[in-house]
């Protein structure tokens, strides 16, 4: 695995190893963490080097019948969740900048008609939103009142925007990006993602790019912007019946 920031390693380590390990073998680990929030009472992380880590609350472990010394595997663990009515949301890819690529980003002079957006850009941002579909707006979750917002313009019209907000009280900034349909495929999103990511790094944050596994265009954008796959992360669905 590429060398990622200690901030990233520490964040995910705290999620999956605070508490105690219930089961571990060469590729699969299950841990119990009593400090997980209700919205994250079970999570699974598959890192790009092949490790699969699961974590859940003590109450949920009891509910699905886990105990110390039990022989487990990832399929068995998932089956126990399913049998207990625990539904996962569906995995997202997690992308970050490696330390090498982040250093390159910090030295880069980004060009083009793009800049940071502020509340004074309310009119142009509203016009931008009105030109996008509801589905695109929901998927991207780009908002003018987020912690950081950047946009790319063409003939004074905002055509691509990205925004970030702090992730789980960590020094990680989760980003979303949206390009209006007629302007896709020519590099606007790549420049905006790199610009807002450089801004986040300058503020002491690690940029985080998430997308669904079947969103091939978003995966391609992450790679084009210089991000590296960290792993696949899944969490309990808000609609779970457990």
UniProtKB/TrEMBL annotation:
This protein's name: N-acetyltransferase domain-containing protein
Classification via InterPro entries: Acyl_CoA_acyltransferase, GNAT_dom
N-acetyltransferase domain segment(s): 104-242
Transmembrane segments: none
């Amino acid at each position: 695995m590429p060398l990622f920031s200690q901030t990233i390693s520490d964040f995910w380590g705290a999620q999956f190893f605070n508490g105690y390990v219930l089961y571990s073998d060469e590729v699969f680990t299950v841990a119990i963490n009593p400090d997980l929030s209700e919205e994250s009472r079970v999570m699974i992380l598959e890192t790009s080097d092949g490790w699969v880590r699961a974590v859940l609350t003590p109450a949920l472990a009891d509910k699905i019948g886990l105990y110390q010394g039990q022989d487990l595997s990832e399929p068995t663990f998932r089956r126990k969740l399913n049998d207990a009515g625990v539904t996962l949301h569906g995995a997202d890819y997690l992308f970050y900048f490696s330390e090498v690529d982040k250093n390159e980003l910090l030295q880069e002079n980004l060009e083009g008609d793009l800049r940071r957006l502020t509340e004074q850009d309310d009119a142009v941002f509203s016009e931008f939103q009105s030109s996008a579909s509801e589905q695109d707006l929901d998927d991207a979750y780009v908002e003018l009142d987020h912690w950081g917002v950047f946009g790319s313009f063409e003939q004074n019209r905002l055509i691509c925007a990205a925004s970030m907000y702090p992730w789980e009280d960590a020094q990680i900034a989760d980003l979303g990006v949206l390009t209006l349909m007629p302007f896709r495929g020519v590099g606007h999103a790549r420049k905006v993602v790199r610009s807002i990511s450089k801004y986040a790094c300058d503020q002491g944050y690690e940029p985080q790019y998430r997308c669904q596994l079947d969103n091939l265009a978003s995966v391609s954008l992450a790679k084009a912007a210089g991000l590296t796959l960290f792993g696949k992360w899944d969490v309990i669905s808000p609609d779970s019946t457990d």
